[in-house]
Amino acid sequence: MSEQVSIQWFPGHMAKTRRLIKESLPLVDCVAEIIDARIPKSSRNPELDALCSSKPRIVLLNKIDLADPAITERWVEYIRKSGAMPLAVDCKSGRGLNKFLPLVKELLKDKIEQNARRGMSGKKIRVMVAGIPNCGKSTFINRMAGSKKLKAEDRPGVTRGTQWIDLGSGIEMMDTPGMLWPKFEDPTVGENLAFCGSVKDEVIDIELLARRLLETIAKTYPDFLRARYKLNGELPEEGAELLALVGRKRGMLISGGEVDTERASAVVLDEFRSGKIGRISLEKPDMTESGQ
Ligand code: G4P
């Protein structure tokens, strides 16, 4: 394996976000965890299971428009077997979101029945959205909220400033998502997040990142690379060679006929992130060593 992209994380806000989630949890009946369908393992928060153990969970596999549909299906099965309720969605187009409220009601069926027995059938079921940066939390909340009005929390003693969006069907959603952090100590996780654009490009070496990404895609989806960049035959294994090929094919040259690797890197990363190379999943369920 060639050198790996190293990413500096600054977990200064971890303690604060952990505290905010802990404070918010008693206010909600369930948690909707959003992860990136291209990297379902790398985009999960390492502590969420422990933090939310008492709350039922929906796991939203988001950005399915960018992920390999066959692998997303396998993740859906995998998550279901692990005991959470999976839902594959594309928050950008809204695909799959019509299933969200029915799923919440199914998940909270016992609670809803219990409320009805106690004469509190009007009591709303409350949901909190949580996820690592860039997984699509705001996009999800905006999509679900549409033009619905926010309702300020007026009960005394609860976290100040909490607002609730009435989604209909007896369900309310907290307007601010729980911000989580990824498993930043694992370099593979950092690299996957960087590939997907969840780490600011200013803090990473984008040429190294593009070379690593090309190596990965050449192993798993070589036909996508051949088709996108009009490459024939066996692809080289080395990222640097792949990047040079792409740069040449696209005519990205600098004086002296050398490939402008910086420009080629930006193009490769952009085309991967926007799905132009193809619908690519970087993690499969059976790649996970601990079953999580
Ligand atoms: P966050 O609150 O969790 O940090 O994430 P946010 O909603 O801001 O989404 C991060 C990026 O992911 C946004 O792109 C958003 O449009 C994109 N996104 C969210 N859901 C989906 C999805 O299902 N499919 C695709 N393809 N993209 C999704 P951006 O580049 O930051 O902004 P923009 O391109 O939308 O302007």
Can you describe what's shown?
By secondary structure, this protein is an alpha/beta fold. It has 2 domains: 164 residues, Rossmann fold (3-Layer(aba) Sandwich); 85 residues, Orthogonal Bundle (Conserved Hypothetical Protein Ylqf, Chain: A, domain 2). It is built from 11 helices and 8 strands. Strands 1, 2, 3, 4, 5, 6, 7 and 8 form an 8-stranded mixed beta sheet that branches. Helix 3 links the parallel strand 2 and strand 3. The longest helix is centred in the last third of the chain and has 15 residues. The chain starts with 13 loop residues before the first helix and ends in a 19-residue tail after the last helix. Guanosine-5',3'-tetraphosphate binds next to helix 6.
SSE topology sketch:
Blueprint: H1 14-24, E1 30-36, H2 48-51, E2 57-62, H3 69-81, E3 85-88, H4 100-107, H5 109-117, E4 125-131, H6 137-145, E5 150-152, E6 163-168, E7 171-174, E8 178-179, H7 187-195, H8 206-220, H9 222-229, H10 239-249, H11 261-273
Parallel strand pairs: 1-2, 1-4, 2-3, 4-7, 4-8
Antiparallel strand pairs: 5-6, 6-7
Helix pairs in contact: 8-9, 8-10, 8-11, 10-11
Residues 62-63, 65-66, 90-92, 131, 133-139 line the site of guanosine-5',3'-tetraphosphate.
Write down the overall mean pLDDT. Answer: 89
Contiguous helical run count: 11
Helical/strand content category: alpha/beta
First-residue to last-residue Cα separation: 25 Å
The CATH topology of the largest domain is: Rossmann fold
Range of strand content: 5-15%
Helix content: 25-40%
Domain CP-type G: 17-182
GO molecular function, one term: GTP binding
GO cellular component, one term: cytoplasm
Function: Required for a late step of 50S ribosomal subunit assembly. Has GTPase activity.
